[in-house]
Amino acid sequence: MEDLPKPIRYDYQALVIRPCGAEYQHYETDLVLILKSQRERYTKNRIYGISKEAFLPPVVEKSYDNFELAKNLERRYAIPLKFGDIVMFNDSDINHHESLVLRFRREKPLYEVSSNNLGPLIRIGGVISPMKLNTFWTPLEDLVIPTDIAPLAEPNVWLTAWIRIETNMLHSKDNYHLEYTFDSFAGCDPSDQSRVAEAPWHSRSIDSQFSMLPAEPTPCESDDEIDLEPRKDIYVKEDKWAEKINRQLGLFVGGRLLLCKDLPQYDFIIPLLKPVAVAPGEERTFIYPSIGEYFHFSAVWSLHHKGFLVTEMLPFQILRGYSTSVSGNILVRVNQASLGGLFTDADSSLGLLDDPHHTLCFSEFHPAAHGGLKALVEVHAVRSSENRSVRWRIVRTIYEDDHVSRFASWLAAATFCVGPIHGMVISKDTVISGDYPSVYFRLPPNSELSAGCGVRFRGRRAAGVDSEIMIEEIHTNPKFSARKVIGQEENRLFQVPLKMIPGHEQLARNEVFGPVDMRQLDPPEDTDDGVFYAWVRESPTIDNCRRACTVMEVFSVALNTPLLPALSGSSSGSRHSGSSRATPSSSSHGGSTSSRHSTRSINSNRFVGGPARSTPGSISNRGAPNDSAA
């Protein structure tokens, strides 16, 4: 058997960027942009012209037998080049002095071509830089994305876009001029996501070398089985990781993000926000998703995002969506959850909600707390890199609501006693108790109890004082003391026993503190009855917002003494002056030490959805009872 002929290899591959007709070739030439070279490493932005001799066929002696062959060769060679065509040629086919290509071979087009009223367009793939959100990197050139289009796309995702390549050169020897212009996004293909590693900022990344291999994060449950792919068009509940997620129910929360109740520990990122079909059929209308609407979606795992990229979205109009505020937050009614200090919505469709500003910390003392007190609040979604299971935060309480108005009136005048309960001293003037984990208990001014000391106490809430109760009687109780205490007032750590709360991989429980936020840490595997020791601290307040979903957060699960956290400008809620704690305003932009530089990326924005803003209804602007005390 004869060997197959080796494929012909050419030195250069080029893209036609400015074609011209045969009638203009006496003073113009077709211009091509070098895309790739087998001989040279750097060929960026190099332009050659195509000589008119390149369109002449090879000399074939015409005879009766080869007359048709000669005519076909002549017709093929005379076909003019078009914008977007791909040509191949060798170094020996180039007149370098004139920058002209003397012979070339046509190849199958690599890029889709279109046009609009501004001129011809070419569809090319690229990635938005996570450091510069208005920069679209492509193998040809970096392009500037218009500011009104940039928020529609997610960084670090391989996208295709329509761009214009323009030049005012008429001949290859003219003064060099080449201009790239971004026109619009075209689409996103999940099968191309491995090409994200081609971006220059991934050149030294370890992940980029293995970007074809999907990572397997810790499943939601204890087993490591991967769900089988369900049948299409059938809703199948999934509660653990799989490389592909099919036909799940998600809530659009803005910022190109869907949340799935069955998989709260993952972000489902919409790589390119575009209109979706409202009514399938011949008369379909396309609209952009609205915050608070439900969608059926499918998604695939993204190594670079440590989350899922949505590949399909269909409106699910059977479920009624949520109302939203003018600031882009979802409006829900909440009540106390079974876990102290946390809340849940009326039908538990959002899961647990956090109250970082302590605006409803006294709601469980209200006479109607267990009989139907449902406060109307605005809530924001939190990205999974911050909270793994408590994905919602209360950012504003609607005091115009009747339920909340009655609660505020009661709060302005109510006094009540608490105790005896146990707790632990966490600072020079503050005690935290697991019985009421979101309430600060104030030590008497003459107290000399040290941090980490276990206590049993009684307290009284004064009218008009917000989120704290003054301790009237207190006794030490070593049973509730911390095992070890290190650090000073600003970075103090307590070593205490914890046990994970079933069904909430983000939360652990301590007998003294109540629920404790594990942050991104996992419990040790070798534990006795699930109990392990960890170093916890009061969650720092950053930009007027508590970072964790509970007052206390885990700093380390190591048995040995860890390095103390670095001191920063952030503070903790218990460290304040005066006899009462002023409730912060309704700002929702509580940053994190893990935040990145991006302001639009899901990976780098603590809150997603529309920006929150202070409104007349917020606590800080309504003259709430705590204002005078502050």
Automatic annotation (TrEMBL):
It comes from Caenorhabditis nigoni. It comes from the Eukaryota. Residues 245-312 form the P-granule-associated protein DEPS-1 third OB-fold domain. This is Uncharacterized protein. Residues 491-558 form the P-granule-associated protein DEPS-1 sixth OB-fold domain. Pfam families: OB_DEPS-1_1st, OB_DEPS-1_2nd, OB_DEPS-1_3rd, OB_DEPS-1_6th. Residues 568-596 have a biased composition (Low complexity). Residues 110-191 form the P-granule-associated protein DEPS-1 second OB-fold domain. Residues 13-106 form the P-granule-associated protein DEPS-1 first OB-fold domain. Signal peptide: none annotated. Residues 567-630 are annotated as: Disordered. Residues 615-630 have a biased composition (Polar residues).
